[in-house]
Amino acid sequence: MNSIEGKSKKVILLIILFALIITGLNAILPMYTSAPIFISSNIIPAAIISSTLGPIAGAIYAALASIILNNIGMGSGTIIYTLVFQILEAFLIGLIWYKSSDSIFKNFLKYIISVIAFTFIVKPLSFAIFYIFNKEFIGGLSFFEYFSNAYTSFIQNNSTNTILMYRFSFFILLIIKYIVNYFNKK
Predict the structure, then answer these.
(1) How far is residue 178 from each of residues 89, 91, 133, 172, 174, measured CA to CA in Å?
(2) Looking at the keywords, is Transmembrane helix present (predicted)?
């Protein structure tokens, strides 16, 4: 049951609806309350789409959600380097999570590897993407100088929050994958 063809139309519609609801809530709730730092407004819905409908579908969803939300007053307009990172992140989640396993051990291992890899490898890719799109604002630093400074700062100041964010996001994803697989088998 790893392809779209293996999923019923009802399951596909529920997956898309659930992702849209989460995206909508993440757009509206900050107007009334603040969310804990470990809840990502972008990762969970894109991860749901990527892991159940494939990496390309997830990348498209991430791009559309970001563009729409950032241009209807929920953000500061589309920021290209952020958009590129969100597309890359959703695509990579789909590559890793699209193939399901019924093995709790394999899924737990995939969860642990994902949290570590996305925290210490994928998230720092955002520094490289930022550099590419904002080289003129970096004050003459070479790529390696900028990247090493940004990565050092990330490890010292933000890595704990990023680990929490990915732990929570991938945990939710794991639960949703089990629910989708359960309904898909019925």
Answers:
(1) 22, 20, 39, 10, 6
(2) yes
Name the packing angle between helices 159-185 and 43-53 (round to 10°): 40
CATH numbers and ranges of domains, the chain? 4-185 (1.10.1760)
**Which residue, 56, 89, 99, is CA-closest to 165?**
89
Alpha carbon distances (Å) from 158 to 4, 122, 131, 144 = 37, 14, 18, 20
Q: HSE (CB half, 13 Å, CA atoms) of 37?
A: 7
- Give pairs for 133-141: CB < 8 Å, separation 24+: 133/80, 133/81, 133/84, 134/81
Query: What is the residue whose two structure tokens read 């509206």?
Result: 28
Structure token pair of residue 2: 């790893």
pTM given for the model: 0.85
Q: Can you tell me which residue has the tokens 């392809």?
A: 3
The one-character DSSP state at 99 is S
DSSP state of 96: H
CA geometry: angle at 119 spanning 113 and 120, to 5°?
Answer: 90
Which CA distances in Å does 21 have to 18, 84, 101, 164?
A: 5, 23, 26, 22
